[in-house]
Design goal:
mainly alpha; 6 helices; globular
């Protein structure tokens, strides 16, 4: 049950916390740092326990997104412990999770039983989220950063809810 419903709850929770941290920079980073530790454990556990069950075309794409995602998530966690390159490590983690799910959604969209157009839109939204956030960093613009995170929150939550419905989880 945790494997099935976990992503539906954890993805919007993670982006909401990231959004709040970006909107209210005074929010204690303790929470987002510990979210990284939790996500490392969750992603590793999910990968190990679900690897064999995720062997079909769409799921095999997502298992690679999750497994590879451990690297940037660890980088994000490490960013809280070092002053040198902390922005690079955090940026790597954030950009991966902004863009990779969108790329995977676009890649798998033709196999999403009636949701192909929507999943392609999620794919475009993922790339857009990464571009908006990057533009926000380059321009020093909080509204662009916030819009990038909000785009990821909405599009990825939608994708998880659709996937859970197609799977019969919800």
């Amino acid at each position: 049950m945790i494997r099935e419903l976990g992503p539906v709850v954890l993805i919007p929770a993670a982006w909401t916390l990231t959004f709040l941290t970006a909107v209210y920079p005074g929010v204690d980073t303790y929470w987002i740092e510990h979210m990284h530790y939790f996500m490392i454990l969750f992603l590793a556990g999910f990968t190990v326990t679900s690897w064999r069950q995720m062997d079909r075309a769409v799921l095999s794409t997502w298992r690679w997104v999750i497994a590879i995602g451990l690297v940037p998530t660890v980088a994000g966690a490490v960013s809280f412990s070092f002053d040198t390159f902390d922005g690079v490590l955090a940026g790597f983690a954030l950009l991966y999770w902004l863009v990779a799910p969108g790329i995977a959604a676009h890649y798998t969209s033709d196999r999403m039983a009636g949701y192909g157009t929507q999943y392609r839109a999620v794919g475009y939204a993922g790339v857009t989220a990464g571009l908006l956030y990057s533009l926000g960093i380059l321009l020093g613009s909080d509204p662009f950063r916030v819009l990038g995170i909000a785009t990821a929150l909405v599009s990825q939550t939608y994708a998880m809810v659709v996937a859970a419905r197609l799977d019969g989880t919800i």
